[in-house]
Amino acid sequence: MKKTLAMAFTAASLTLAGTMAANAADTIRTYQEPDLHSGVKIGYLDCTIGGGIGYVLGSAKEIECDFRSSLSGERSDHYSGAIKKLGVDVGFTTRSRLIWAVFAPTAGYHHGSLGGIYRGATAEATVGAGIGTNVLFGGTAGSIHLQAISVTGQIGLNLAATGTSMTLASAN
């Protein structure tokens, strides 16, 4: 029990440190990040991440996502890309699933507007079944934001505390 709590505390600390490091490294901004609380939830992004092996210093996995609008009658959009981690990433995982809430400055959504690069940090602990936390910010010129913190469900044997980047491109 104490080991589990210690591992959870360590993972949370490393996630916070990674987020602070990622924000410090990104000193030049061409846009100002809007406050998510003043944004409008326009739907959610449901992603499947391919399985793979962490190579001690990082990993790269394919990602496939479907955006579903919270507005009735809106069609869904499909995105593909990659999620890359740099840091301590040891072990293997099977396919995992990640769900994000999507916020925009206004209630509208335009095809392909979730495409772009998101950066932040990840902490995962998996022995059989496990969870991970992702803190990622970015997107197309900051106009659309994913929920700041997401939870990943996965199966495998893995321990990761990494800086993370995710690239999404419209696949429609």
From TrEMBL:
Origin: domain of life: Bacteria
Per the UniProt entry, the signal peptide is 1-24
Which keywords appear in this protein's UniProt record, sorted alphabetically?
Signal
InterPro entries (UniProt xref): DUF992 (IPR009333)
Question: What name is this protein filed under?
Answer: DUF992 domain-containing protein
